[in-house]
Each structure stands twice: as structure tokens, then as C-alpha cells.
Design goal:
CATH topology of the largest domain: Rossmann fold
Order of helices and strands: EHEHEHEHHHEHEHHHEEE
Number of helices: 10
Shape: globular
Strand order of the largest sheet: 1-4-3-2-5-6
CATH class of the largest domain: Alpha Beta
CATH superfamily of the largest domain: HUPs
């Protein structure tokens, strides 16, 4: 695996790759990230990945400084999966000057996650566009765990006419149902035992055993602080109308100091 730190090094490596697939990450990799790499590898013979903790998507009170950074282990995992090029830039490489030009996403960016993390998706869309410009992939793989992010990246690629196919990967879960996330490392042992409740309640909504409002009440009763737990349309994340059948239940809630997100797709009728 070729590790490159600068855009110039990246472009020299990119010149030797034919229609690469790309997996952008913030590092601290787990099996969910590696599943994205495997999907990329299935689609093409060249795979690039990136590790970059993007300050623009963190609010001042969030965990940018303490976000887990495990670069040596991440490199070993990516190399074992056959990644050809890893782009791991310093912050000054991607942001050599204050980023005055930012991507202003659709109004969807102000709902759900965006309501509780203002300008989060401005930071996500801006860094993804910069990474796309640097790597110039033919394919990019994103996980469904970040369902709203996936929609926004797809919309950005479509509206900017980017020649990149955005592939969605299913959420990878622990044996007890907890969606894999780098932030799971923040959970105490007791919180880790409680954390699968989020998926169990979403699964109950999917199965029709519980309503979204009932699931939210159950989370709050168990000591969580729920930001949202809602049903939306899969196609555009708008609130469902009568007759809409393909829906997704999305949730974000705090367990202690750790904020967890998850979702499940469902079909009515």
C-alpha cells in the first residue's frame, strides 16, 4: 500500500490507477469501514482510501481533539484489505488557507442531524468535494449508517455532475445489534451493555411492534437523551405522506456523554 501525504504525491499515484474506487474515512477503523473497502474491491481493481479528521464538521463543543486517532493500526488493516493508495493529508494540505468557499447543501442539511449539529453537513460536503477533486475516483462507497450523509453526498454528486457513482453499503453491526462506530469506544462497560437498546427499538418500529413516538419514549425512559427518532421516506428523507411505503426510521440519542446514531429501512404493507 502506498501512503501519500500531499496532493502532488496523490496525483502521481492516481495516474497509475485505472478508474479507482474510493473509501473516505476519519480513521479509527473497524469492521464497518473494512466492509466498505471490500465492496470497493469487488467493483474495480484499484482502491484508494483516505484518513482525515475533518475539523469543519465538528462544532466547537464537539470531540475533534479527542476523536480516536489510530493511524498505525488503520494502515495495517487497510493494507490487509488490499488498498492500493492511502491519502493521509495533514490539515494544512487540505486547508492551506481558511476555507472561504464551502458547499451549501440542500435544505435537508438543516433537518435531523443538521438540526442538532448546525453546519455539520456543510463541513461534510465541503471535505468530500475536496477529496473527490483530489482522488478523482470513478466510484465512492459510503455506509448507510450515516443515512442522511449518504443522501447529501449523492445529491451533491448529482447536482455538480460529478462522474462518480455513489455506492451505499449496509450497516455493519456487532453481534448484539449495535451499529459499529468509532465513537462506541467512548462507552463505559455499563453503557456498552445498554447501547443495543437503540437498535432493538428501531427494529421494533420496522416490525410494526412499536411506533416511532413509542420508541422515543422508551429510549427516554431508559435514561437516554433523544435528539430525534423519526420516520422519513427513503427516497428523499421527507416526512412520509399517505401511501408512502418505503420508509426509514432514523434516530440519534445520547447515552451518557456519547451520541449514537442508527437507522433501519422498512416497507409498509
Amino acid at each position: 500500500m502506498h501512503v501519500v501525504r500531499t496532493i502532488e504525491e496523490l496525483r502521481a499515484a492516481r495516474a497509475k490507477m485505472r478508474e479507482p474506487a474510493f473509501v473516505p474515512t476519519m480513521g479509527n477503523l473497524h469492521a464497518g469501514h473494512l466492509a466498505l473497502v471490500r465492496i470497493a474491491r469487488e467493483r474495480t481493481s484499484s482502491v484508494a482510501a483516505s484518513i482525515f479528521v475533518n475539523r469543519l464538521q465538528f462544532a466547537p463543543q464537539e470531540d475533534f481533539e479527542r476523536y480516536p486517532r489510530t493511524f498505525a493500526n488503520d494502515c495495517a488493516l487497510l493494507e490487509a484489505e488490499g488498498v492500493d493508495v492511502l491519502f493521509a493529508p495533514d490539515e494544512r494540505v487540505l486547508y492551506p488557507e481558511p476555507q472561504a468557499f464551502v458547499v451549501d447543501p440542500s435544505p435537508l442539511a438543516n433537518q435531523l442531524e443538521g438540526q442538532f449539529r448546525p453546519r455539520f453537513f456543510h463541513g461534510v460536503a465541503t471535505v468530500v468535494l475536496k477529496l473527490f477533486s483530489c482522488v478523482q475516483p470513478s466510484i465512492a462507497v459510503f455506509g448507510k449508517k450515516d443515512y442522511q450523509q449518504l443522501h447529501i453526498v449523492r445529491g451533491m454528486a448529482r447536482q455538480f455532475n460529478l462522474p462518480i457513482e455513489i455506492i451505499a453499503a449496509e450497516t455493519v453491526r456487532e453481534a448484539d445489534g449495535l451499529a459499529m462506530s468509532s465513537r462506541n469506544a467512548y462507552l463505559s462497560p455499563d453503557e456498552r451493555a445498554e447501547a443495543p437498546r437503540l437498535y432493538r427499538l428501531l427494529d421494533a418500529v420496522r416490525a410494526g411492534r412499536e411506533t416511532a413516538a413509542g420508541a422515543r419514549s422508551a429510549l427516554d425512559a431508559a435514561g437516554w437523551k433523544t435528539d430525534y427518532l423519526e420516520l422519513r421516506r427513503q427516497s428523499d428523507l421527507a416526512p412520509p405522506l399517505d401511501g408512502d411505503r418505503n420508509l426509514v426510521a432514523l434516530a440519534a440519542a445520547r447515552l451518557g456523554a456519547t451520541r449514537l446514531i442508527d437507522n433501519v429501512e422498512l416497507q409498509l404493507g
